[in-house]
Amino acid sequence: xxxxxxxxxxxxxxxxxxxxxxxxxxxxxxxxxxxxxxxxxxxxxxxxxxxxxxxxxxxxxxxxxxxxxxxxxxxxxxxxxxxxxxxxxxxxxxxxxxxxxxxxxxxxxxxxxxxxxxxxxxxxxxxxxxxxxxxxxxxxxxxxxxxxxxxxxxxxxxxxxxxxxxxxxxxxxxxxxxxxxxxxxxxxxxxxxxxxxxxxxxxxxxxxxxxxxxxxxxxxxxxxxxxxxxxxxxxxxxxxxxxxxxxxxxxxxxxxxxxxxxxxxxxxxxxxxxxxxxxxxxxxxxxxxxxxxxxxxxxxxxxxxxxxxxxxxxxxxxxxxxxxxxxxxxxxxxxxxxxxxxxxxxxxxxxxxxxxxxxxxxxxxxxxxxxxxxxxxxxxxxxxxxxxxxxxxxxxxxxxxxxxxxxxxxxxxxxxxxxxxxxxxxxxxxxxxxxxxxxxxxxxxxxxxxxxxxxxxxxxxxxxxxxxxxxxxxxxxxxxxxxxxxxxxxxxxxxxxxxxxxxxxxxxxxxxxxxxxxxxxxxxxxx
Length: 527
Known about the structure:
Radius of gyration: 29 Å
Oligomer: single chain
Shape: elongated
Strand order of the largest sheet: 2-3-4-1-5-7-6
C-alpha cells in the first residue's frame, strides 16, 4: 500500500521545502522497520516547481499472522477467510496510518529545526491514495475531508472492469487537494481518517488511543460535523472510550468558543480529596431509596454541602442546619409550589441538589447540567449512577454544557434552577446566560439563588470587603438583585417574586436571596 504527497512551488518558495518538513532528503531512498514490515520513503520527483514524496508500506504477511492473526478488535474484513491472502498489503488502513505517524512524526507535530518558519506555512498540497477501503462509500469520504478544507476527488473502484454489471467494490481512489493547509494538518487528517474509513484496526484499542485521537484531532475534530462517527470508528466502537473522548472534545469546543483554557472551563472541582471520596461513598443511595418526604434535609452535616459557594458555612443564628440544606429546602418548596415535574439543575456542580430531587417521587425527570466534567464525574459517583436501578436511572441524566450558549437539549422543561451560579460569571457575560435560559430554554419556572452581600458583615470570619468565595465575580445587594431580576422578567415575559433563604436579619436581610420567575399566562399560552 502507498500514498503520495505532492507540493508545488516556485524558485522563491521551492517545492523541495517538502523535504525539510518531512525530515527526509529528496536525494535519498530511506527504509524504516515497522512491526508488520518495512516502510519506504522515496521521491519520484523533486524540483523547485513540484516535489512528490511517496510512502510505501511493504507488509510481512507472516508477521501479520503472528502478531494477532491479521486483525485487531473487530478484525480485518477478509482475515477470517484467509489469513495470508487479503487486502491488508494493498489497501490503505490503520497499518498505513501507524507507519505515517512513525516515519513522519516530526512533521505531524509541526517541528522543523532546520527551517522553523516552514511548519506554520500553508502549502499547495496534493495527496493521492490509490486504494482506500471506504465503508460508507464516496459520500462519506467527501463528508469527512471536505469540511477540513480539502477538495476531494473520489472514484469508486469497480469489482472487475471486465464485468461492470458486478458493480463497485468497497474501495475508492482518493485525490485530495488544498492550498490552505499546513503539512502537519494534512498528516493529522490522514492519520485519523484513514483507519476511520477502513473501520477495522489491526491492533487492540486501549485507553491511550483516546489521547492519540485528541492530539491528532486538535484544532479540527471538536467542530467536525462527523465528530461522533469519527470518534466511534477510530476507537473501534468501544463505548466507554468513545464516551470519554466525546466528553473531552466537548470541553475543548466550549473552551475554544469561550476563548479560555480548558483548565479554566473545567474548574468546578479543584481536586478530589479523601473527604470528597468519603462523602460520595457515604451519600444516600438514590438508586435504591425513594424518600416520600422529598423536601426534608438531604443529610448534609452543618457546614457542608454545595461547593458552589462557601456561604454554606453554618449560619450564626442556626447551629444545627447548614445554609446549603436551608437553600435546598427552599428550592424544593418552590418547585413543589410550581407543580414542576421535569426539572433542570443548571450548574449542578457535584450533584447535591440533583440527589435531593431524585429522592422526591414528584419529580419525573431531573437533568443536571455543568460545564465541568470533573464535577459531573463526582456527581455521578454521588448518585451511584452505575448501580442505579433501571426505573430510577430513567429519571435522571447528567449532561455537559455551558450556560453561556443556547442548547436545544434544555427546551421543554417545567422548571430550571440556578443555585449559586450567576455570581460565578463575569457581569458582561450575564446577558448570554439570560438569553440561554429565559429566551431559548424558556422553562415555565426559573429559580435563581445568589448570596446577599449585605449579610456578609454577619460572618465573623469573613474579612471586610471580601467575597464569600474566591471565584465569585460579584455579589449583589438585595436592591441590585431585584433590579436585575425585574429587568430579566420584563424582557422575557416572566413575573418574579422574591424569597429569603436563611434567617432574615431585620437590618441586612437573609444570607441567600432567591428569585422565583414564573412565565406569564400570555407567554405560557404562546409557548
